[in-house]
Each structure stands twice: as structure tokens, then as C-alpha cells.
Design brief:
There is one protein chain. By secondary structure, this protein is mainly alpha-helical. The chain has one domain. It contains 10 helices and 4 strands. The chain has a two-stranded antiparallel ribbon with strand order 1-2. A two-stranded antiparallel ribbon has the order 3-4. The protein is globular and about 50 Å long. InterPro entries: DUF6994. This is DUF6994 family protein. It comes from Lysinimonas soli.
Length: about 240
């Protein structure tokens, strides 16, 4: 699972234009849900990235590249300018593999932006996937986070997975989660939202973040590959 989804994205955003990425999402997440029933995803609905409609509800998942390098953040310019082109390119290749991709509901709900939008706009999240997963963990425990209102607006989607363990297992996120599922292994030391900056403050902090993020992507790619071999490839034998 090392395909760089920019390869077939043309000049566009891979989250919307890569046919390979869309197919990966469709194959990986069309499966049995913790709540019961299948989350079958189709690509046949007009002007829709992925679509699910059943007795469980109607959902419009879209793709999100979830592990940012912060290369376009103006507040990070003084750090990014100190990185080598090789460092940047290495990160960009890794964060455009399926291990760095997720789906979230893409339809607009009353009073909130989408989860993808909220992740990016909220300064206490700043697109961080580890922070997002921590917010989702807290949602299942009815604990507050900077994304509480947004996640709650998509409560029907998160109910599909019953609890945080169900969500993490479904999306193959175990390598970011403690074995007890009681905590998230964040990419930098973390005190709490609003206390810990989601943006690395020094080159050293960025490199520490990078190393942990790339390690997670590598492990998740392996986990995805193993799941595909056991569930998709085996079904074709």
C-alpha cells in the first residue's frame, strides 16, 4: 500500500480526482459494521464521491488527506524554510498513501461545517489527525473537545461504530491507539486541547512530529495490506 495517489490525480486534489484513492476507499470501507449490517459504498450517485443508503441511514463520505506536514501554513514558514527538499518530499510521498487517508461524512449538516472543514479551521486542531482521533474518542465518552458540536451533528455516522473501539478497528487505526483503547498515541507530547499547540514550534518539534506520523502511516499501510490480503484477495481465490 505504497501507491502515491497524486500519480493519477492530474493537476487536481487527490482527495477528489484520484480514481485509485476513491477505489481504495470503496473497497476498504465497504464491510460489516459494528452496529450490524454492511457499510456498502457506491460511486454511481451523480456528483457524489461515495454514497451509502440503507436502513442504517444515508451517508455521503468524502476523502481527506489527514496527516499534514504544515508546508502551506504561513505560521510555519520559519520552520519549513529550514527543512531540506528531500525531507519535504519524503513526507509528501508518505502522506499521499492510503495509510494517511480517511473518509468522513461530506454532507453539510445544519449549523456546522463538515468534519474535514472543522479540522482545518479550528486552531486547536489545525488539521492534526491525532488530535481529531482524540476528539472522536472523547465524543464516545460524552466528553468535550474543540470538535464536539461538529461530531455531534454527525452522530448518526458515529453510531454505526457503537463505540471508540469499534470506530478504531473499523478504520484500522489500532497503531494510533493504546491496547486498552483508553487513549490516543499522539504525535507530540499532549496536555490538553487549548494548552498544547497543534503546530510544532521548532524544527526539532516538527521532526519529532514527522517521525511519529510517518511511523504511524507505515504501520497503518501494513495493517491495511494485511486486511486486504485476508479479506479481499482471499475472497477472489
Amino acid at each position: 500500500m505504497t501507491f502515491d495517489v497524486r500519480t493519477d490525480a492530474g493537476a487536481g486534489d487527490p482527495d477528489t480526482t484520484s480514481a485509485t484513492l476513491r477505489r481504495y476507499h470503496q473497497l476498504l470501507w465497504s464491510k460489516e459494521l459494528p452496529i450490524g449490517g454492511r457499510f456498502d459504498l457506491v460511486t454511481t450517485k451523480t456528483r457524489t464521491y461515495l454514497h451509502h443508503s440503507s436502513g442504517l441511514g444515508e451517508f455521503f463520505p468524502t476523502s481527506d488527506t489527514v496527516i499534514p506536514g504544515f508546508f502551506r501554513y504561513k505560521r510555519m514558514t520559519h520552520i519549513i524554510d529550514q527543512l531540506s527538499r528531500r525531507e519535504i518530499d519524503r513526507f509528501l510521498v508518505a502522506n499521499h498513501t492510503i495509510g494517511a487517508m480517511m473518509i468522513f461524512p461530506g454532507d453539510r449538516r445544519p449549523g456546522v461545517v463538515t468534519i474535514n472543514g472543522a479540522r482545518g479551521f479550528n486552531p486547536n486542531i489545525a488539521d492534526r489527525f491525532d488530535f481529531t482521533v482524540e476528539a472522536i474518542r472523547r465524543h464516545y465518552l460524552d466528553l468535550p473537545s474543540p470538535l464536539s458540536s461538529t461530531i455531534a451533528a454527525y452522530g448518526d455516522f458515529f453510531r454505526l461504530f457503537v463505540d471508540f473501539r469499534g470506530y478504531a478497528d473499523f478504520f484500522l487505526l489500532q497503531d494510533m491507539i493504546s491496547t486498552s483503547y483508553e487513549s490516543v498515541r499522539l504525535f507530540n507530547p499532549f496536555e490538553d486541547f487549548g494548552v498544547t499547540s497543534p503546530l510544532p514550534r521548532t524544527v526539532q518539534e516538527w521532526r519529532s512530529y514527522r517521525d511519529r506520523a510517518l511511523h504511524f502511516i507505515k504501520l497503518r499501510n501494513r495493517r491495511i495490506d494485511a486486511w486486504v490480503r485476508a479479506n479481499i484477495a482471499a475472497s477472489k481465490v
